[in-house]
Amino acid sequence: LQYFFELFRRVCCVANMRRRRRAWTSIPGAMRTLATNSMPPHTTRMQSLLETLLDAPSSGAVALSRAQERTIAACHQGRSVFLHVPTGAGKSLAFQLPALLAPLSHKTIVVSPLIALMQDQVTTLKRRGFEALHVTSDKRPQPLPELLARAQLVYATPEFLLRNTEMRDLVQLLAARGQLARLVIDEAHCILEWGNSFRPSYLELSKWRARHLSGVPMTFATATITDEAIGHIADMFGMNIVDDGTASSDHGAPSGSAATVGDRSQHNDLVLVQDIQDRQNLRLEVLAKPGSMQHAAAMIVRRVGNAPTIVYCLTKKEAEDVCLAIIRAGGNAGVYHGGLSRKRRDFVQKQWMVGKLAVICATTAFGMGIDRPDVQFVYHHSIPATLSSYHQQVGRAGRDGSPAQCVLLYAERDKSRVLSLSGPSDDLDGFASSGLHADVEEMASFCETTGCRKEILFTHFGQVFDATACNRNCNCGEPLAMDETHDEAEDENGDVGFGRSQALSKTKSSQGRSAPNRGAVEVYYQRVLNETKRLGLPKREALSRRVVEAILAHPPETEEAMACIRGVGETKASRFYTVFSDFRRRD
């Protein structure tokens, strides 16, 4: 009996080890960063919360990405954090977990741009057994203080937080008592993109925080923002950006404890955590836009079938028209935009989430925080206003790791449409007009390049991407072309269309040299901006796009020759000559 008992025990041990090894190896290498022995002091509780938040069984390891680990460590020390990670990388978890680890009496306020986004996150948290609340101007079943008393995570729009006197006073009272663990601004890019246009409450948050919540740490979270915008937001809130290396060493007192709340000097530092990943399961394509909306709709229907699909449109009317065209082409589609009633938007979103609608035609706001990992296609029927918007929207595809396709239908005429809609009209669903012309030109360069589009995307965010290592999951190296199902008869009607062998950039200079590729101009312009930033100079000291184009058209052999180019001069030549060295070698 002892022999069989020992044999049985050993078999069970081996089975457990194999199961744990499978669970460990099923987590991508970049995520296997926290094992039990490297956890903060409240190890068991943290692991239990993680398993519940992730809706996953115990595996013996905590599945956190490196960026999530750094953010949680910084929050654990009571620091303010700016988290910039791709769509689908788990930024919500990075601020939800510290909130749930805080004492029950301590609240975390999450400022969110959309009611639908708040509802989605709160519903998910409640389904997993956590006390969360979203507050709006709608009628409430109980007084606001009683509702807040039970919840650790409280979601609100910036307008409700600042305009509702009862809510504002309650939050300020929590801060005065040292019971406000953290103020989170989710989708932090909205501070600048929307605060400068139709939602000024976003800009007022910084002044309100300075007056009443200066001792409260903050978390800014977004999937789409440039380094320049991060710096601008830090300045608005009176914070100094510091490297996140300081956040991953020792573990101080938990956020919200007496050791952290009230330490104002610490909260003037903003720990920057960035992780721009190459999502290799996404194929990025840019195709010339068919001349008619019905042809574009037919092309989309043939390609996507009944696969989960988002079609982004520039305006509310365009979203409605494209939806109707897709239905006429035999597709199963619905429309979602800010002009519809909340009841209608909720209905369409739920129909799409459960698979009763295959295609949803939407404006830019759709998708923020939507938890659908199996989106196989993201189409852009018109050019997005900015590369940042494009990056965020394509990031909603393939979040389950399966192959997904992101297709942008480009026509040069759409540039003027974007610019014309940036005026007094409110039809452009959520874009600020500040600097829009430069953003649209950058987006057009991305579309028209025959170089690597991923390099342009990474450079836009101040990151480095080796184009030679591109695994061809963007259609780089190919001229802008029509979809293979395109009816070439459209071209005879004067509509925009390009054959596969027909590149956009055919212009010759006066000396017979090919004009530089617009994508190359954008890549080197961004490199100039990065060098300007590295030197600590203001943006006005950089070379303009036009000057960069002139340099690439006739690469100077010496620094002196570069100084002679109009718009350069000796000072700028000495700063930026080396930026173009690899282009001269390739030339």
UniProtKB/TrEMBL annotation:
<feature type="domain" description="Helicase ATP-binding">
    <location>
        <begin position="72"/>
        <end position="243"/>
    </location>
</feature>
<feature type="compositionally biased region" description="Polar residues">
    <location>
        <begin position="502"/>
        <end position="514"/>
    </location>
</feature>
<keyword id="KW-0378">Hydrolase</keyword>
<comment type="similarity">
    <text>Belongs to the helicase family. RecQ subfamily.</text>
</comment>
<feature type="compositionally biased region" description="Acidic residues">
    <location>
        <begin position="485"/>
        <end position="494"/>
    </location>
</feature>
<dbReference type="GO" id="GO:0005694">
    <property type="term" value="C:chromosome"/>
</dbReference>
<keyword id="KW-0067">ATP-binding</keyword>
<keyword id="KW-0547">Nucleotide-binding</keyword>
<dbReference type="InterPro" id="IPR002464">
    <property type="entry name" value="DNA/RNA_helicase_DEAH_CS"/>
</dbReference>
<dbReference type="Pfam" id="PF00271">
    <property type="entry name" value="Helicase_C"/>
</dbReference>
<dbReference type="GO" id="GO:0009378">
    <property type="term" value="F:four-way junction helicase activity"/>
</dbReference>
<dbReference type="InterPro" id="IPR027417">
    <property type="entry name" value="P-loop_NTPase"/>
</dbReference>
<feature type="domain" description="Helicase C-terminal">
    <location>
        <begin position="299"/>
        <end position="444"/>
    </location>
</feature>
<dbReference type="GO" id="GO:0005524">
    <property type="term" value="F:ATP binding"/>
</dbReference>
<dbReference type="InterPro" id="IPR011545">
    <property type="entry name" value="DEAD/DEAH_box_helicase_dom"/>
</dbReference>
<feature type="region of interest" description="Disordered">
    <location>
        <begin position="485"/>
        <end position="516"/>
    </location>
</feature>
<dbReference type="InterPro" id="IPR032284">
    <property type="entry name" value="RecQ_Zn-bd"/>
</dbReference>
<dbReference type="InterPro" id="IPR014001">
    <property type="entry name" value="Helicase_ATP-bd"/>
</dbReference>
<dbReference type="GO" id="GO:0003677">
    <property type="term" value="F:DNA binding"/>
</dbReference>
<dbReference type="Pfam" id="PF00270">
    <property type="entry name" value="DEAD"/>
</dbReference>
<keyword id="KW-0413">Isomerase</keyword>
<dbReference type="GO" id="GO:0005634">
    <property type="term" value="C:nucleus"/>
</dbReference>
<dbReference type="InterPro" id="IPR001650">
    <property type="entry name" value="Helicase_C-like"/>
</dbReference>
<dbReference type="Pfam" id="PF16124">
    <property type="entry name" value="RecQ_Zn_bind"/>
</dbReference>
<protein>
    <recommendedName>
        <fullName>DNA 3'-5' helicase</fullName>
        <ecNumber>5.6.2.4</ecNumber>
    </recommendedName>
</protein>
<dbReference type="GO" id="GO:0005737">
    <property type="term" value="C:cytoplasm"/>
</dbReference>
<keyword id="KW-0539">Nucleus</keyword>
<dbReference type="GO" id="GO:0000724">
    <property type="term" value="P:double-strand break repair via homologous recombination"/>
</dbReference>
<dbReference type="GO" id="GO:0043138">
    <property type="term" value="F:3'-5' DNA helicase activity"/>
</dbReference>
<dbReference type="GO" id="GO:0016787">
    <property type="term" value="F:hydrolase activity"/>
</dbReference>
<keyword id="KW-0238">DNA-binding</keyword>
